[in-house]
Amino acid sequence: MLGITVLAATAIVACASSCGDPTFPPNVATRVVGGEDAIPHSWPWQISLQYLRDDTWRHTCGGTLITNSHVLTAAHCINKTLTYRVALGKSNLTVENEEGSVYSGVDTIYVHEKWNPLFVWNDIAIIKLAEPVELSDTIKVGCIPEEGALLPQDYPCYVTGWGRLWTGGPIADVLQQGLQPIVSHATCSRLDWWFIKVRKTMQCAGGDGVISACNGDSGGPLNCQAEDGSWQVHGIVSFGSPKGCNTLKKPVVFTRVSAYNDWINEKIQL
């Protein structure tokens, strides 16, 4: 994950040692059923992707700030007919001028060339911001894991987003977080789990029937803490079960970020 221009490259190098290091640490001591309100700005790389309709900006997906100019999100979040903006440094979406938050226009959107909406393959996109954003206590970049990195079964990770609080329920006002332990490919590809629907370029997490990502969380990060204490983004929320958000043995399926390092590097250098 190296920069796109001299300016961006400098920013990446400068932030390489401090990515995934929130000024306000998240509360990971509790495991609340169904998720919980996140401590404000404890996931400062989380963004809200918003589209304009009837003169109102509306949340549609999450995403992760990975450089001061680039956001990582899901390909299925992108509709070329819509006008987007990116909200950064947000906790409460109902507070337009929230302290520490900024809004950015979009310069370019790169959707993976082999994105397949039928089979949900290569569900990854990068948004280049109209202008580089100034990093702060409330706006930071998330770490990208090393190429090919895999986490073991039951490794504790957290999904974050403003998605629906339950199946068919309302979008959350305040950023939510939920514990989503890693599910190995061997488990997730079992006949009574996701079977052949899940590929090795995907990462499953959760599946306990209690805590789950839901509609509106799409594109957002699966945050996993490394041994050095930094938070790495191992997944991009991709899809779940049509039976509902919290379905037993149907964990949320994420695009596995470590399967796309080369593609990410290529796009942020354009």
TrEMBL record:
UniProt name for this protein: Ctrc protein
GO biological process terms on file: proteolysis
UniProt domain Peptidase S1: residue ranges: 32-269
Gene of this entry: Ctrc
GO MF term list: serine-type endopeptidase activity
InterPro entries documented for this protein: Peptidase_S1_Elastase_sf, Peptidase_S1_PA, Peptidase_S1_PA_chymotrypsin, Peptidase_S1A, Trypsin_dom, TRYPSIN_HIS, TRYPSIN_SER
Domain of life: Eukaryota
Signal sequence interval, chain numbering: 1-16
Record bears the keyword tRNA-binding: no
Keyword entries, A-Z: Disulfide bond, Hydrolase, Protease, Serine protease, Signal, Zymogen
Species of origin: Phodopus roborovskii (Roborovski's desert hamster)
One GO location term (cellular component): extracellular space
Keyword Nuclease: no
